[in-house]
Amino acid sequence: MSIKNFPRYPLAFLPTPIEELKTLTKKLNGPRLLMKRDDQTGLAFGGNKTRKLEYLLADAIKKECDTLVTMGSIQSNHCRQTAAAARKAGLCTELLLRGKKPEISNGNLLLDQLLKAVITWTDKPVTHATLEAFVEEIKKKGAKPYLVPYGGSSPLGALGYVNAMIELDEQLKQMNEKIDYIVCASSSGGTQAGMVVGKALTGFTGEIHGIGVSKTNEPNSTLEKEFTKIANETAALIELNQTFTEADFFINKDYFGEGYAIMGEKEKEAIHLLAKHESVFLDPVYTGRAFAGLIDLIRREKVDKDKTILFWHTGGTPALFAYADQLLYPTTQFEF
Ligand SMILES: *Cc1c(COP(=O)(O)O)cnc(C)c1O
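# pyridoxal-5'-phosphate complex -> structure
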C-alpha cells in the first residue's frame, strides 16, 4: 500500500514550520542554520512521537483496542504523547515507568497525570518479558490493550517520518531551498529510519546525520543494525522496492556524555544559547544533546561554511521543568 493510502489518525498540526536561525548562525560564525519545528506538532506540547502515533493509533483503532500501553523513563516524552494521543481518540493509557514515584510530579510526569494515564512504577529494567506480563495484567482487568513499542519505533511508527520527509520535500520546493545536512537526535531509531526511507522515496539529496543520545540496550547489537532493520520493514510496508544497509545510517556516537538523560555542561550550554539567541527551547535529554554536538562540530570546523544545515527539533521541552534546579546554575561560564 502506498504511504498516501495508509490508515492514519490525524493528531499533528502539519506542516510544521521551518525557521532560519540567523542570530545564532552569526554568533557561531558557521554554516547557515535552519530548524524544522517538530516541537510544534501541536498535540500536548508536541514532539516527534506525534507523527509516529498517527499511524500507531490508527492501527489500535482498527484492531478495536481500547487502551494504549507503553513504557519509558519518568520524563518520557513518548509516554506523555501516547497518553495524549489515546485521550484524543477516547482511549485509555497504561504506562510502565522506570524509577520511583517522586514526591512532586513535574514536566512530562505531571502531564501524564493530567491526561489521566494509569501509571505503574518499576525499579527493574524493562524487558520484553516484563512487558508481556504487564499486557496480560491489563487484559485481566477486562481491557483490550494495544502495545505501543518503545519510543514508537516500529515500522508502522516510522511511517510518520517517511511522511515528514514528503512534507519537507514540498516545503523546500516552495521555498526554493536546498539542504546539505539534516541533523537530528537519535535514540530508538524510528525517526532516523523513517527519514532514510523518506529520502529514498522523495529523492532528497542531503545527508541525514543522526546524533546518538544513548547506546543500544541490546547485547551484540549496534544502533546501525537496529535502524536498518526498521528501515527495511518500513519500506516493505509501503512496497518501496529498496533494501537499506548499515551504510545508509550515519549515527554520531561522540556525544553520549555521562549517559542517557544525564544533562552535562554541553547540553546546558546548548539550551542557554538557543534560548538566548533564538528564543527556542531545547530539551535536556535529546535536542539539547544533539544541538550541543552540532555546535561542537561547527566550532571544530567539521562542517563547511557554505553548507546549509537543517536541525530537526524533535521536541521534549516539558522535561526542561524537571531539570530547573540544574539549568539555572551552570558550573561553567558560557562563551556567549
Ligand atoms: C524520542 C525522542 C527522540 C528520538 O527519536 P527516536 O525515534 O527514538 O530515535 C528525539 N527527540 C525527542 C525529544 C524525543 O522525545
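# post-check
Residues 47-48, 77-78, 151, 153, 185-192, 283, 286-287, 314-316 surround pyridoxal-5'-phosphate (CB under 6 Å).
The beta strands are 18-20, 32-37, 67-73, 92-98, 118-122, 145-147, 181-186, 207-212, 250-252, 308-313.
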